[in-house]
């Protein structure tokens, strides 16, 4: 089965800690100046016009800038088409190269995502079958801009072996070929190598070898978030229980849920409320930064910007501190 490594592996922690702040207007205009000097005149002018309406609503972003010839051929794009060329994530070249073909990248057009189409033999990163410039035209750590030779097609369909929902929205049991232990071990190794050691240790201690026909979904905060928010080791079990859903939900499944949809977790009485803000999926007030961070036939991991807390102040955590493996 395919898997996607974390985009977050290569993004500094200060980027995540500043998620509540908007991109400075100066950065957007600096990017437009660089685009102008690099021969992307049409996108440079367009970026200046839409900056306040689009980019300044997000703390970080990646812009995929079509060439002047693309503008000449297609004409001035609609606002929705421009949103489709903006991702609310700082996507570095290294992180993009780690994504498997079929991985989805959220955009600022609600409900629409881009698809990674890079094959192992490709030297350049490809999205929706369009190659990006090898390195960003502009990169200040929060805002990155790549060049592309034509506009992305919102109706693009990926025909490769990428992630698909397979009716997981209803958590239907499926026949699987690989062992549970092997599936968890691959997830654990991936997480350990990328700044998610706390989550990886939890999976290793509590879930490795467990056989669950419907799989699990983990919403994983990075180590910095975990260490800053919980101090006592005896808090760990209940903390992790709230981040694990007893069903395997890929990104395609999550975006199909309406606002207000509640996901049950393994912590009794704790649910995750799905909402949206400017095209970003929000879980109990916490944005999903990196969808399909890892996935195989039993485990899906999505990177979130912080730990999940109860929205209902009356919620009281169950005093049971250990996972019962038979729950899975």
TrEMBL record:
<dbReference type="InterPro" id="IPR000782">
    <property type="entry name" value="FAS1_domain"/>
</dbReference>
<feature type="domain" description="FAS1">
    <location>
        <begin position="171"/>
        <end position="308"/>
    </location>
</feature>
<comment type="similarity">
    <text>Belongs to the fasciclin-like AGP family.</text>
</comment>
<protein>
    <recommendedName>
        <fullName>FAS1 domain-containing protein</fullName>
    </recommendedName>
</protein>
<dbReference type="InterPro" id="IPR036378">
    <property type="entry name" value="FAS1_dom_sf"/>
</dbReference>
<feature type="domain" description="FAS1">
    <location>
        <begin position="28"/>
        <end position="156"/>
    </location>
</feature>
<dbReference type="Pfam" id="PF02469">
    <property type="entry name" value="Fasciclin"/>
</dbReference>
<feature type="signal peptide">
    <location>
        <begin position="1"/>
        <end position="17"/>
    </location>
</feature>
<dbReference type="InterPro" id="IPR052806">
    <property type="entry name" value="Fasciclin-like_AGP"/>
</dbReference>
<keyword id="KW-0732">Signal</keyword>
């Amino acid at each position: 089965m395919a898997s996607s490594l974390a985009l977050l592996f290569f993004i500094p922690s200060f980027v995540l800690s500043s998620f509540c702040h908007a991109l400075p207007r100066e950065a957007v205009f600096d990017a437009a100046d660089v685009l102008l000097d690099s021969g992307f005149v049409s996108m440079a002018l367009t970026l200046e016009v839409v900056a306040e309406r689009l980019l300044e609503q997000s703390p970080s972003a990646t812009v995929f800038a079509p060439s002047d010839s693309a503008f000449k051929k297609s004409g001035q794009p609609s606002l929705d088409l421009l949103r489709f060329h903006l991702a609310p994530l700082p996507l570095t070249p290294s992180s993009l190269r780690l994504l498997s073909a079929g991985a989805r990248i959220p955009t600022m057009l609600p409900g629409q995502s881009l698809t990674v189409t890079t094959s192992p033999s490709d030297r350049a990163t490809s999205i929706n079958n369009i190659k990006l410039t090898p390195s960003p035209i502009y990169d200040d750590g929060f805002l990155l801009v790549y060049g592309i030779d034509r506009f992305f097609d919102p109706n693009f369909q990926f025909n490769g072996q990428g992630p698909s929902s397979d009716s997981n929205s209803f958590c239907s049991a499926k026949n699987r070929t690989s062992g549970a232990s092997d599936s968890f071990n691959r997830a654990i190794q991936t997480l350990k190598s990328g700044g998610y050691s706390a989550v990886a240790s939890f999976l290793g201690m509590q879930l490795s070898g467990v056989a669950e026909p419907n799989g699990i979904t983990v919403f994983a905060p990075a180590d910095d978030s975990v260490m800053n928010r919980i101090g006592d080791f005896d808090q760990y079990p209940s903390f992790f229980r709230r981040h694990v859903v007893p069903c395997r939900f890929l990104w395609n499944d999550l975006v199909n849920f309406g606002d207000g949809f509640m996901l049950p977790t393994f912590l009794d009485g704790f649910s995750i409320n799905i909402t949206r803000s400017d095209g970003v999926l929000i879980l109990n007030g916490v944005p999903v930064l990196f969808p399909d961070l890892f996935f195989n036939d039993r485990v899906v991991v999505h990177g979130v910007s912080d730990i999940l807390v109860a929205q209902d102040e009356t919620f009281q955590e169950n005093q049971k501190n250990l996972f019962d493996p038979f729950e899975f």
